[in-house]
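Repro:
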Amino acid sequence: MPFSPRIQARGIQLLLGRVMSRVHKDLRFGEIPKRTEVLRVETGAGPVACTVYRPPATAEAPAPVYVNFHGGGFVVARPDQDDHICRYIAAKAGCVVVNVDYAVAPQQPYPTAVTQAYDVTAWIVENGAAHDWDGSRLAVGGHSAGANLAAAVCRTARDRGGFTPLLQILDSAPLDQVADPATKRSPIAKPLLTPQLMRIFTAAYVPDPADRAHPLVSPGLADDLAALPPALVVAGEHDRLRDEGEAYAKALEAAGVPVTLRVFPGVDHYFTHTGPVPAGKEAVELMAASLRTALSTH
C-alpha cells in the first residue's frame, strides 16, 4: 500500500529538507556582512517569524523594502536557504529585505501560506515608521514555491486595493498546479524536479484538487492579469517549469504589464541556489539591479 502524500511530504521534510535547501558554497556571498534581526508578525493564519536584512549604513534612510519568499515545494521550511540572496540584495540594492518564514504543508496546507504571505506584506507596508523602512516603496519576490506566493501576494494586493508592489520577482516559479507534472518537459534526461516529487508537493500543499485551478494557487491559469505589478521572470533552460514561466511572462505582457523575461541557458531548476555559479550569480545580480531601479524611481 503506497504512503499518502501527507506522509510522503513529512518524509521529505525529515529526511531531505536539509539537502534540498543546500546552497552551493560559492554562491554564498560571504564577503558581504549580514546585519539582521528577527521580527514576529501576527497574521490571519498565525504568527510568522521574519528575518530582516539591513542595507549598509550608507544607504538612504528610510530604505525601501523587498519581501522575499523562500522555496521548498511548499513543504520545506528553511528560509535560511535564501540568506545569500537576501544579503546580496540588501547590500547592492540598498533596501531592507524581509525574509518570510511562512508555514508549510502538510501541517499547514493552502491557503495558510498565501494568507501569511499577504498579511506579512501588508504589515510591512503599514509599519515602516516603527522599523525604519519605507513601506510605500515595496517589492516582492520569491524562488520556486516562494515565487508562486509572490505572484499570489501581487494578485491579492491588486484585488483588495491596499498597496501596489513596484516589482515582482518570479524565479523558477510553479504557476500551474493542474497540469500533470509528467507533461512538463525538460530537454535533459534527468532534471532536478521529477514528476513524482512535484505530485507530492502539490498534493500536500493543495489536498483538494478542486482548489488547484484557483488563481492564488495557479497564477498561470488566470486570465485577468491587467494592473499587476511589473515583473522580472527568471527561468532555467532545463527546468521543467520553464514553459509555464515563459507563458506567464507573455500573458502578463499581453495584459499590459511591463515584463522582463530571462531564460538562463544550460541551467536547471533553482540554479540561483545550486549553480552553476556564474549563472546563479548573474541572476542574483539581475534581481538586485532590477530592484534598485524599481525602488528608486518612486
